Amino acid sequence: MKPLLKGVPTNVVTGFLGAGKSTAIQGLIRQKQPSERWAVLVNEFGEVGVDGGLLAGEQPDDVVIREVPGGCMCCTAGLPMHMAMTMLLARAQPDRLLIEPSGLGHPKEVMSILTNEHYKETLSVGATLTLVDARKVSDSRYTEHETFNEQLEMGDVIVATKADLYQDNDFSALRSYLANNDLLDGRTLVQSIDGSISLSLLNESFVPKFVGDHQELGAVSDEVPWQEAAVFPPEGFIRRSNSGDDYASHGWLFKSDFVFDESALRALIPFGNAQRVKGLLRTNLGPRGYNYSGDAVSVSPMAEVSDSRIEVISDVFFPALDFEKKLLKAAVRS
User: Fold this and answer.
1) Chain-centre distance for alpha carbon 210
2) Which domains, ranges and CATH numbers included, belong to the chain?
3) Count H helices, E strands: the chain?
4) Band of the pLDDT at 131, cuts 50, 70, 90?
């Protein structure tokens, strides 16, 4: 019989698209005690599931990652999040749980589930970390977006990421934006470079920011299949799209016999008006992880990938078919 979990320290790491959530979580994991076992629940806006693999990288066996692709996991009465979290807790038996909602996810609904009576004994909810690129407060596409502001509102700790890329007035502009919107008092504000965040911030005080309607979460099985295998058509790849909150995603999943030319991929990413591009791809130089969020493209060697997948997120029309043609041109089938 699996031991009964009680009081698992739990933190939400939220932030808008491209804020650096996965990089920050990797940095936190590197600081954990070797004797501890951590679990990470990752939600992403796209449909093919890339973030979990990028986050996993070469993580040790004592870090268990579960991914929920396809939009906000807290919607549909919170069932996707409830099921995934139940399964993850049962499998990992963690000493700490980190939750990374989608960059377009709704942190109020996530918190409503975490503070539900169903998890009262199991979880000990700690500080919410909200990551924000201070340069974005000068862009109305962000400051007028409901989710961007809700994420800041829900934060106990606000982390200004990518601080090494700021101009002289960027951080002060963020501080002014927070102060003008009553989002500074009672919150800790820090800066971060390359995702470096002190582990101690997870232990900052958690202050409930709203009173939600706590729906009843019934018992769900923890024996749900960990990951469903994709069924490919004869051409060997699948394209899936998703849209919501004024953004759209296009994702491609390729069979394992597709091998991409690494130099061609570097030339292709970013493409058009894409705001986010992320991928796990089999290349002629070995498995690679790709991540683009408006600055330089980062490329990381990966231990192994079972197939190739890439996701593009844009806030306006994206020429998905043109991008697909160039992807196929950069690939050969072994």
Assistant:
1) 23
2) 8-203 (3.40.50.300), 237-333 (3.30.1220.10)
3) 9, 16
4) very high
Q: Which of 203-217, 275-289, 297-311 is predicted with the least confidence, judged by mean pLDDT? A: 203-217
* pLDDT score recorded for residue 211: 55
Identify whether the C-beta of residue 286 lies closer than 8 Å to the C-beta of residue 294: no
- Integer-rounded Cα Rg, in Å, for the chain is 20
Q: How far apart are CA 26 and CA 62, in angstroms?
A: 13
**Sign of the Cα pseudo-torsion (66, 81, 232, 289, in order):** negative
CB 117 within 8 A of CB 1: no
What are the backbone dihedrals phi and psi of residue 203, each rounded to the nearest 5 degrees, phi first?
Answer: -95, 5
Residue type, 314: S
- CA–CA separation, 303 and 281 (whole Å): 11
DSSP secondary structure string for all residues of 115-132: TSGGGTTTEEE-PPEEEE
CA distance 187 to 152: 10
Q: Which structure tokens are listed for 18?
A: 């491209």
